[in-house]
Design goal:
The protein has 64 residues and is mainly beta. Helices cover 6% and strands 44% of the residues. The longest helix has 4 residues, at 49-52.
Length: 64
């Protein structure tokens, strides 16, 4: 998984695979899910991320 924050456009990207995106749906305003040809989630985009979270450029990872 990759996490990328683009400060210029204020978008946080969560990328789960490198599969080709064939469909995108805005599930809720500012929350876009990208899907591959089998319907699996490839990535999630959070628009206006700085308005939706305290610090989108800070990432904490935990394995359970």
């Amino acid at each position: 998984m990759k996490v990328k924050y683009d400060k210029e456009v204020d978008v946080l990207y969560l990328v789960f695979s490198e599969n080709k995106i064939v469909e995108s749906d805005e599930e809720k305003p500012g929350l876009i899910f990208d899907y591959d040809n089998s319907g699996a989630v490839v990535s999630i985009e959070i628009l206006e991320a700085s308005k939706k979270m305290e610090n989108p450029s800070q990432v904490e990872y935990q394995a359970a």
